[in-house]
Amino acid sequence: IGKIQPHSRALFGLNDISKEAVYEKLKTKKENAGKSLKQYEREINLLIPGAIDAKVHFNTQGYEFREDSQHGSTAAASGGTTTIADMPCTSIPAVTSEENLFIKMKALKDKSLVDFALFGGISARQYTSRKEIENNLKSLAKAGVIGIKVYTISSMESFPELSYSQIKVIAEILAKIDLPLLVHAEDSQMVSFREKRSRRFGQNDWESFTRSRDAQAESEAVLQLIKIAKATNCKIHIVHLSSELALMHIRTAQANKIKISAETCPHYLFFTKDDFNKKKISKYLKTTPPVKENFDRDALWKGLNDGTINFITTDHAGCDPSKEKKSRNFWEVYSGIPGVEHRVPFLISEGVLKNNINLEAAVNLLSKNPAEFYKLKNKGLLQKGYNSDFALIDIKDSFTVKSENMNSKGKYSPFDGKKFDCVVKKSFVRGVEVFSKDRKENNNFKHGKFVSN
Fold this sequence. Notes:
With 453 residues, this protein is an alpha/beta fold. Helix content is 37%, strand content 13%. A 6-stranded parallel sheet has the order 5-6-7-8-9-10. Strands 1-11-14-15 form a 4-stranded antiparallel sheet. The longest helix has 18 residues, at 215-232. Mean pLDDT is 92; it is low at 1-17.
């Protein structure tokens, strides 16, 4: 019970939240007559606001051979996540206009267990005149997207990267609209030069890949984006932050009141480059940017604790591992991890129960912070007037990640074989149970609704 004290006061209606006080409160109920304190400790579960994963690629429509909304939302619900925000680039057509947004919303109709928000995006393909860009961004904002995503480097032909000068123009427009700009931050020139050099010399291993996308590449992009944020007063948000160096730049910029923020992911908080030596998970671990050094991992935990990093997402991006995670050429291995199912258990088990972060901060990172950042109405809190989105977690139970048991379409994970010391028992979206550990499946895909700010 001591582990859950910071978030239990509201649940029990107590000022004194010692074990004894909780015990005395529960004893007043007839059904609890005669139970001992030890029995209560075994039975008490942790109730948190439904978690919000603000960066997933569920791929409906167009890339369903990798993932789809039905599988993705089932995985989310089973992992205590009740609201997701889907990226604009991994669907056909990409969500780069109001028309494309409505196509996406139509494709998602009756295909989600959990509520979903959507991001818009701008790539080099949509970069036309300033007036056209401004009209497009305004229409996307009015239609309900919660942010705009761009890349400083992209391997997607359908969604190519923008230059820093182009990003600055978009930032100037978004500052007026009051919509955040999400950026994949790795310097294109630096990464591309290194990759071409390595390929030319036949260097196709994981070391060459990680060397090309090191902390310096992320740091350079972040520094450029900080300059843009300062010049435009746009709220710029760095997705999947992976390095101490970039984190330090962000911390300094925030101290100077520059509107720059960041998120990170479970894999950056657990794995390091050394884990690429493990043949079983090496290719499963490939994502961009790649995981880095021990000190980077430790620095990210500190960034979560001191508030420099706003929240934790998964960047959920699955595939068919038998086809896209098999190449001997590491450059050709698909880059992406399906993680929406494991984020909440990870943060409770590896964060709270191992004293890397306290429970109140963990709950805020999972729920409150993303809801506030993206202004998601009635989400993120256990409070009157808010949606009845809950996750019920047993912190006395445990489970071991087994890829074959995952609900995602792509059944693989670098966490395969890892034991988490908690279990999501139930998830509720707007008061309706969408997942129960004791029930095999729930096909109520009509329940998930589009949400906006």
